[in-house]
């Protein structure tokens, strides 16, 4: 699900309420196209909410703004920070998504394993896109 | 009040997130078939468990009135036994065991007791649930009787529970039998307003009905056994130059106090239904 890259490059001073609603509408559009009502919307909303808190706790935005950047990227904060940041966000999104998709405690380990593997896949795809457009 | 508003203002962001998340979760539950059925099954079994527990507890409190009911019913049964040939229903082709004549001892109806675990009377279409299901031999289309009269028809069964369409339902219809006039005409319906009263429709104005006459189930029904009390005529309005009378009837069953019921299995139903199937 590499569309999550769009959430990672949203500017940091974007209105947080508007961001939630945008995430919801965006997720709903993806749901409409993929025929899974509500699953993407719920996971996008969960991810954006988590993103707000993660950014508040762990990311120093003042230094980012001093560097003249709008959002966190590899160039400004380095590989490690970027990897932790995006992996955790993508994992939250995928966890909610697969939890809603399997929707049963019976498939608890299926959910976790699918979330982890899809997180890695999505992360690789995001790196690919980034490298494609940064060149 | 201000405290609440201040709290909402302070927590606006998590609340918005929760609202949107809940809305999409609702979408998932409502429109995705697998999730919907999973959620539905889980909640149904949970509420059945609650209902069963509640029934287990409350049935002790109702013991006294239930005993009254049972006494009444026993009396009724004994009466039937004694007056097999002299009762006013004797012109009727009753299909119970004819123990006195001994000519054909063919039992057409078998009775199974059950307990009501959930019941509504305040909706337009009412259902109640009984604690007997497919594993106890309940099938769809079986009649359900209360000690005092008819109660409904089984519509769905699970392994241990069944859903019964109550008489208080828009789709319920039954041909009445009025023994005083030997009349088998019209339809018993429920209007959807008062759980105590129904109406008797499509009875010609020439039929001379009287208030207080007993309405029984007729032998035209393949579901209900004939001769079961249904209602008493409460009010008759012949209207002005109308073909049919407006008749209000009072059900003999008190639907708000349904507890012990009997499921009736008709052995002739499948045969009759096979005949009515269009070829």
How would you sum up this structure in a few lines?
The complex is a heterodimer of chains A (135) and B (279). Chain A is mainly α and 135 residues long.
Description of the structure:
The complex is a heterodimer of chains A (135) and B (279). Chain A contains 7 helices and no strands. Chain A has helices at 5-8, 16-34, 39-58, 61-66, 74-77, 79-102, 108-134. The two termini of chain A are 22 Å apart. With 279 residues, chain B is of the alpha+beta class. Chain B has helices at 2-10, 12-31, 33-61, 63-82, 269-276; strands at 109-119, 127-130, 143-146, 149-157, 162-166, 176-177, 187-189, 197-201, 214-217, 229-237, 246-251, 260-266. The longest helix of chain B is centred in the N-terminal third of the chain and has 29 residues, at 33-61. The model of chain B is unreliable at 81-95 (pLDDT under 50). Chain A binds chain B through residues 16-17, 20-21, 23-24, 27-28, 31, 36-39, 41-42, 45-46, 48-49, 52, 100, 103-104, and chain B through 12-14, 16-17, 20-21, 23-32, 34-35, 38-39.
Number of beta strands of chain B: 12
Shape of chain B: globular
Q: Low-confidence stretches of chain A at least 5 residues in length (pLDDT < 50)?
A: none
Query: Mean pLDDT of chain B, as a whole number?
Result: 82
Distance between the termini of chain B: 70 Å
Helix content of chain A: over 70%
Query: How many strands of chain A?
Result: 0
- The succession of helices and strands of chain A, N to C, reads HHHHHHH
Q: Biggest chain pair contact, residues each?
A: A-B, 23 and 21 residues
The multimeric state of the shown protein is: heterodimer
For the biggest sheet of chain A, the summary is: none
Shape of chain A: globular
What's the alpha carbon Rg of chain A, rounded to whole Å?
A: 15 Å
Query: Number of helix segments of chain B?
Result: 5
**Poorly predicted sequence stretches spanning 5 or more consecutive residues of chain B:** 81-95
Provide the structure class of chain B: alpha+beta
Radius of gyration of chain B: 24 Å
Number of helices of chain A: 7
What is the arithmetic mean of pLDDT of chain A?
87
Strand content of chain B: 15-25%
């Amino acid at each position: 699900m590499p569309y999550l890259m769009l959430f990672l490059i949203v500017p940091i001073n974007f209105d947080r309420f508007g961001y939630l609603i945008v995430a919801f509408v965006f997720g709903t559009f993806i749901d409409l196209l993929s025929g899974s009502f509500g699953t993407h919307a719920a996971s996008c909303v969960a991810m954006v909410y988590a993103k707000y808190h993660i950014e508040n706790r762990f990311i120093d935005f003042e230094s980012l703004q001093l560097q003249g950047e709008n959002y966190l990227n590899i160039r400004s904060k380095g590989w490690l920070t970027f990897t932790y940041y995006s992996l955790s966000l993508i994992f939250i999104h995928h966890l909610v998504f697969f939890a809603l998709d399997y929707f049963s405690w019976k498939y608890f380990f299926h959910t976790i394993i699918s979330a982890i593997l899809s997180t890695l896949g999505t992360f690789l795809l995001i790196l690919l896109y980034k490298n494609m457009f940064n060149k | 009040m201000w405290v609440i508003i201040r709290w909402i203002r302070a927590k606006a962001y998590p609340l918005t997130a929760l609202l949107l998340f809940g809305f999409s979760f609702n979408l998932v539950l409502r429109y995705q078939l697998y999730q919907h059925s999973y959620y539905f099954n889980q909640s149904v079994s949970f509420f059945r468990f609650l209902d069963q527990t509640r029934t287990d507890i409350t049935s002790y409190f109702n013991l006294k009135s239930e005993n009254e009911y049972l006494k009444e019913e026993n009396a009724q049964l004994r009466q039937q036994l004694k007056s097999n040939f002299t009762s006013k229903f004797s012109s009727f082709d009753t299909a119970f065991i004819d123990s006195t004549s001994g000519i054909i001892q063919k039992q057409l109806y078998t009775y199974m007791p059950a307990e009501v675990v959930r019941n509504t009377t305040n909706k337009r279409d009412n259902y109640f649930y009984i604690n007997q299901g497919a594993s106890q031999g309940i099938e769809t289309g079986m009649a359900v009787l209360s000690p005092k009269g008819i109660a409904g028809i089984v519509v769905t069964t699970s392994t241990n529970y069944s859903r019964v369409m109550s008489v208080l339902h828009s789709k319920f219809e039954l041909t009445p039998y009025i023994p005083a006039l030997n009349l088998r005409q019209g339809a018993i319906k429920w209007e959807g307003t008062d759980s105590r009263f129904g109406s008797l429709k499509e009875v010609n104005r020439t039929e001379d009905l009287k208030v207080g006459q007993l309405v029984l189930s007729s032998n035209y029904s393949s579901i209900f056994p004939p001769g079961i009390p249904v209602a008493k005529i409460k009010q008759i309005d012949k209207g002005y130059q109308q073909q049919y009378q407006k008749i209000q009837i009072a059900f003999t069953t008190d639907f708000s106090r349904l507890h012990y019921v009997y499921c009736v299995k008709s052995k002739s139903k499948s045969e009759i239904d096979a005949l009515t199937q269009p070829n």
